[in-house]
């Protein structure tokens, strides 16, 4: 019961002209949550190229590292704060790129409850912050919101096929709630939101042993170990090079569409094809073996990027065979095995 009160739904408040105007001012103060991670640190590099940006990173270093940001250590336009976003955060900023969340299955399953807290309470806190200071906020959601998709390739209007109680649910359901929170703060409080659905991304600075397929295969090939293709090996993924991803995220933030918008590379490969490609490019002498898979592994994944093309003028430029050598250099340096 409404207790006799006449409840009518209010239209969402329009952002004030002043609030809108600040998105075009010089000296933008930009918060990047998860900025010490793989994608976040590349985003920071790009944002720092613009002299008018002040960049603040908050990160709890769960999967990220200060080392990814050492090039900005001490820079007058840069600040790094150790902070866990499941706790409230008080900073004054104009834009928030909200990336904080472990992305690799090994790490997000390691403490599933914590992953949920990061997605739900962490996103709530960043939205509360955006509301208080009038900032625009971008969420890096994921293709995992489509689950094991029954629509192929995946378009943004597909609602997904997700197991709510499985071992991946802390991540994919967590991101689904994060998206819901974004749209409810937008409708209810007029917050300016942007939602990106990121598809598998690879490149330098990925954790070497984080279990994701491109980093696994590359590290295995460099170490002369067999490439571990998880069964059946016919499952597909589409891999986007990190500089293309960062370009897409910035275009989304600076454009006019809320999203959700798929950002990914539509080139689709089976895991066996990926293994063959890595073997051929890095070390033709190694073996490819089949190993057990984990539960609920999606069988296929490929973004439909029509919206990104039309609304952001974005499409990826770097194909897998060009991206792998760029990543190889970084991996060889960190593993300590130079190319012969
Ligand atoms: P990553 O693990 O390298 O980076 C995540 C960063 O968030 C790390 O630096 C970590 O320490 C930090 N973090 C985690 N929990 C935190 C917390 N509670 N408080 C503060 N910091 C916290 O992962 P990534 O690949 O760079 O992914 C970045 C974002 O993109 C994530 O939101 C992820 O879900 C999304 N995404 C990535 C991919 C991909 O293929 N890499 C695909 C889809 C979506
Ligand atoms: N919050 C924050 N930083 C801020 C403002 C809010 O971390 O600058 C957190 C706040 O602690 C709360 C969440 O964001 O847990 C949601 O804030 P909101 O104001 O929307 O909700 P309320 O505080 O009324 O529950
Ligand atoms: N995979 C694989 N070998 C590995 C690691 C992963 O064959 O050493 C497969 C995995 O089964 C999945 C695909 O690669 O089908 C992508 O897995 P990843 O963990 O990189 O990303 P996600 O499942 O989140 O797309």
From TrEMBL:
Enzyme Commission number: 4.1.1.35
Q: According to its UniProt record, where is this protein mainly located?
A: cytoplasm
Gene Ontology molecular function, alphabetical: NAD+ binding; UDP-glucuronate decarboxylase activity
| EC category | lyase
Tell me the compartments it is located in.
Cytoplasm
Q: Tell me what reaction this enzyme catalyses.
A: UDP-alpha-D-glucuronate + H(+) = UDP-alpha-D-xylose + CO2
The pathway entry for this protein reads as: Nucleotide-sugar biosynthesis; UDP-alpha-D-xylose biosynthesis; UDP-alpha-D-xylose from UDP-alpha-D-glucuronate: step 1/1
Which UniProt keywords are listed? Cytoplasm, Decarboxylase, Lyase, NAD
Q: Which residues form the NAD(P)-binding domain?
A: 31-326
Q: Does the keyword tRNA-binding apply?
A: no
What CDD domains does its record include? UGD_SDR_e (cd05230)
Q: What InterPro entries does this protein's entry cite?
A: NAD(P)-bd_dom (IPR016040), NAD(P)-bd_dom_sf (IPR036291), UXS-like (IPR044516)
One Gene Ontology cellular component term attached to this UniProt record is: cytoplasm
Name a Pfam family for this protein: GDP_Man_Dehyd
Gene Ontology annotations of biological process type: D-xylose metabolic process
Listed cofactors:
NAD(+)
> What is known about what this protein does?
Catalyzes the NAD-dependent decarboxylation of UDP-glucuronic acid to UDP-xylose. Necessary for the biosynthesis of the core tetrasaccharide in glycosaminoglycan biosynthesis.
Q: What family name appears in the similarity comment?
A: Belongs to the NAD(P)-dependent epimerase/dehydratase family. UDP-glucuronic acid decarboxylase subfamily.
- Could you identify this protein by its name? UDP-glucuronate decarboxylase
């Amino acid at each position: 019961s409404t207790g006799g009160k006449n409840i009518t739904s209010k239209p969402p408040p329009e952002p004030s002209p002043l609030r809108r105007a600040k998105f075009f001012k010089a000296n933008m103060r930009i918060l990047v949550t998860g900025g010490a991670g793989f994608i976040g640190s590349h985003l920071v590099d790009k944002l720092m190229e613009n002299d008018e940006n002040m960049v603040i990173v908050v990160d709890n270093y769960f999967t990220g590292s200060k080392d990814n940001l050492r090039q900005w250590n001490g820079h007058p336009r840069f600040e790094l704060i150790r902070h866990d976003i499941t706790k409230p955060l008080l900073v004054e900023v104009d834009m928030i790129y909200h990336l904080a969340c472990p992305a690799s299955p090994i790490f997000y399953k390691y403490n599933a409850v914590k992953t949920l807290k990061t997605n739900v309470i962490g996103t709530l806190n960043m939205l509360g912050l955006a509301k208080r200071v009038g900032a625009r906020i971008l969420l890096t959601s994921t293709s995992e919101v489509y689950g094991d998709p029954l629509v192929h390739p995946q378009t943004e209007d597909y609602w997904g096929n997700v197991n709510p109680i499985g071992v991946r649910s802390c991540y994919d359901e967590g991101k689904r709630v994060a998206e819901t929170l974004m749209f409810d703060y937008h409708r209810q409080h007029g917050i300016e939101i942007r939602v990106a659905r990121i598809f598998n991304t690879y490149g330098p600075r990925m954790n070497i042993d984080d279990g994701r397929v491109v980093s696994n295969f590359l590290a295995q090939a460099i170490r002369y170990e067999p490439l571990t293709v998880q069964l059946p090996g016919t499952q597909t993924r589409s891999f986007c090079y990190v500089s293309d991803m960062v370009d897409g995220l910035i275009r989304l933030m600076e454009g006019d569409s809320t999203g959700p918008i798929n950002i990914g590379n539509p080139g689709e490969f089976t895991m066996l094809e990926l293994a063959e490609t890595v073997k051929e490019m890095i070390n033709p002498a190694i073996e490819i073996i089949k190993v057990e898979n984990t539960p609920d592994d999606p069988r296929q994944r490929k973004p439909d990027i029509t919206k990104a093309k039309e609304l952001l003028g974005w499409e990826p430029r770097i194909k897998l065979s060009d991206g792998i050598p760029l990543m190889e250099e970084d991996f060889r340096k960190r593993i300590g095995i130079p190319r012969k």
